[in-house]
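Structure tokens please, single chain.
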Amino acid sequence: MTTPETLEAPRRAASPGRGFDPETVRRDFPVLHRTVNGHPLVWLDNGATTQKPRQVIEALAAFYASANSNIHRGAHTMAREATEAYEGSRAAVASFLGAPSPDSVVFVRGTTEAVNLVAQTWGRANLGAGDEILVPVLEHHSNIVPWQMIAKERHARVVPVPLGPDGQIDQNAFADLLSFRTQLVALSHASNVLGTVPPVREMTALAHRYGAKVLVDGAQAVAHFPVDVQALDADFYVFSGHKLFGPTGIGALYGKPEVLAGMRPWQGGGNMIDSVDFGRTTFAPVPHLLEAGTGNIAGAVGLRAAIDWLTSQDRTAVTAYEKALTEYAVQALAGVPGLELIGAAPERISVLTFTLAGYDPAAVAECLDRDGIAVRAGHHCAQPALRHYGLESAVRASFALYNTPREVDTLVASLQNMRQQ
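Here you go.
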């Protein structure tokens, strides 16, 4: 039975440093105070996109209201201001990821474009017949399909790395599959459907013994715990702003400086050139080499605001709070008859995917929506991971730092009411 004491348990668990209070954080998010179908919104679709604090919304509005200009190519005041804001955002991303230099950060539309960029530049130059790309079964489609496309073109092969019953990557199988044919390992820092957090640092070190490069998909990780790309020793690290409380249409690709230096352009146009002539064109250095055309300048400004907002929190306390909230949710959902959680990796982010016996996942999501609860239903762009459990569809409740134990109770009550109807 839920009591005031159990509602406070996750908050008490997050007490290191100055602590963390989700109710204080919620004041920064205007959308969390709206109603849906006559009920207070319970936003549990954070794996798809996070909501935006007023600091991000205000930064976007301020840029368009007072500093809107194209960058790098203007001599007037607003061009300089916009350029400084854009490049300041690049520096903020580099600091956020623990990158050695802002020049190792390339702005992209998001994780999907970043993976495609690496596949079409590094992959086209380095993959050949018989080469292998190892991709765990838990990956998002965005970290599978681009490798299939370039592998087909280059006559290479994508090799799936199996999962164990609890949703962890089978480390013995991974070690066995690695060979000197392995040119790249592409893996998520956190699974969007199982929540699994693989031992990325250890897997990267093992891959490097065979001379393979490692790309880490950080889309689901960066909002939940600090990332240090140098400590991970990742060759590439990618993420999306909209999963980090920032705007859509902006993300970043980190690459080791020596790896980026050997990459050629993917797209051509303005901003990525040094000199253009019909006889010969020379290119700008990285990162501009990989940023053809006008980028999402306002998005970069909004991304910096999101990073500033998130890093102003006590992230150790936030991580502890989310872990406690997830444990509370697991226990609470266990009381719903017929509900089965998918995946049980000991290291996981706050993503809970489940099925409800006798109910189609889409019907569950629609019923929850009537109570103002937003969850995701479907294959979650991770069909191989779901098929590992014999499923084609499931319901996903994904939590962020602004979610509360009371919202978990609302979710559980709605599911129990559904069972009783």
